[in-house]
Amino acid sequence: MEARLTILGVIVAWTSVAVSAFNWTASSPADGTSILLCPGDNVTIPWSFETSRGDALVNVEWYFQPEGDRPRLLATYVAGNYLTPSTTTQELSFLPNAGLQVSRVQQDQFGVYTVHVNINKGGSSDTETRNVTLLRPEPPVASGGRLTASVQPRAVYREDTREWHVQLECGTLLDIGNPPFTVLWTTSQEETVNSSSYSNGTFYLTLPNPAEGGDYTCSLSSTDHTTACLNLNPSLANGAAVKVDSVLTKFMVLEGRLEALQEENRELNQTDRTLHQQVNMLQAQNANLTSQLQQLRNSCSVAGSHTSVVRLVDGRRPSEGRLEVNVDGVWGTVCDDDFTVQAATVVCRMLQIHSTSPVVQKMGTFPPGTGKILLDDVHCDGSEASIFSCNHRPVGENNCQHVEDVGLSC
Q: Which whole number is the average pLDDT over 275-287?
């Protein structure tokens, strides 16, 4: 459908400023800006721009998109004339070079206002766009349609004062409105103070210590002028009151301190239990290390006194004879089964006799021993510090007779 255009009587000269490219001026509202206003208010949208010298303005178009509807042409600037279709109901004034003023905004004139600047750049067309949304103020919404005020049942700890305080609460707001409302408090001394904090629809007032008893009231507040056109529900606008008992508040603060001390005590007890567990674990580790150390000392003791645990007997000289070993103070012989030169090398080293070619003597070279046969199936590789470090049957276990007692010559 073609709209009839009306030529406005005001004609504004188009000017081009020599800049490197298209730019919106600093006074232009940012794209997506929202403006709150009441029905009947006037609003100015000071759009303006600059272009480079070689650009040619084709036209400027303004559109209006009502809430829940499609955009429609509001006005056009072309060839030095401002044209408006007959469907435009707004009282419009146009401001150089793309601004717009809407006078006495009506209920159906809230929505999105958009400007399109169409430019010819060296034979190619380009469109720059910005939009502003006109919004009605929205009232806050409270649960149950009214504010309620109360004393929180427990004192709260404040990091800034490092102390426990009684706190009042006022709410509950399901929506804080647009522009956002806050809550002001009137104390028992008729002083007006701001809320201390806000969370999830509830405003809080922290009372200084010691808290003054008496009546406290909370009420909605906003410094934005548009709240004047809101018709707040009286039960919401009148606020709410709460009575504070000064004796009870002292008790609540003391209770908060006591609970904090109890919690600290629980934490200390837990720390104490943890430390005890750590001590027990360290003691167990210490006992284990002590045992290992003792074993090492015993090993070192054996290694340091090898000559007292092995001996050669019934030979013609100290470096030869039947091999005997000492276990727990008892001397006994060693069976010749699998006993090799490598084992003889270990024994000679234990006896601190340097020998490059020890000889294993078997079967009657030396007189057989008496008593126990303590070692059997001894397997050494020659590097061991003690014959007891070689592989062998368990001490005292054997399948030999004394005629198999091994002897050697270092």
A: 92
CA distance linking residue 195 with residue 202, whole number of Å: 10
Q: What is the CA radius of gyration of the chain?
A: 52
Distant-in-sequence, close-in-space partners of 30: CB < 8 Å, separation ≥ 6: 130
Tokens for 249, please give them.
């508040």
pLDDT in tens, 99-143: 999 999 999 999 999 999 999 987 788 999 999 999 999 999 999
Q: Say if strands 49-50 and 148-151 run parallel, antiparallel, or are unpaired.
A: unpaired
Contact between 243 and 214 (Cβ < 8 Å): yes
Largest CA distance in the chain: 145
- What average pLDDT does range 207-227 have in this prediction? 91
Q: Are 39 and 145 spatial neighbours (Cβ–Cβ below 8 Å)? A: no
Residue position matching structure tokens 């504010």: 147
pLDDT value of residue 296: 73
DSSP label of 54: T
* Burial (CB count <10 Å: 0-12, 13-18, 19+), residue 84: buried
The distance in angstroms from the start CA to the end CA of the chain is 127
The amino acid at 80: G
Closest by CA position to 216, among listed 173, 262, 249: 249
Task: Give the C-alpha separation, 339 to 387, whole Å.
Answer: 11
Report CA-CA distances (Å) from 47 to 29, 44, 120, 128, 328: 7, 9, 20, 12, 108
> What is the full DSSP assignment across 113-173?
EEEEEEEEETTEEEEEEEEEEEE--B--EEGGGS-EEEE-SS-EEETTTTEEE-EEEEE-E
Among left, alpha and beta (phi > 0; psi -120 to 50; other), residue 249 is: alpha
Q: Are 116 and 60 in contact (CB under 8 A)?
A: yes
The type of residue at 197 is S
**Dist CA 184 CA 216 (whole Å):** 10
* Percent of the chain at pLDDT exceeding 90: 67
For residue 339, what pLDDT is reported?
A: 94
Question: Taking the model in full, what pTM does it have?
Answer: 0.57
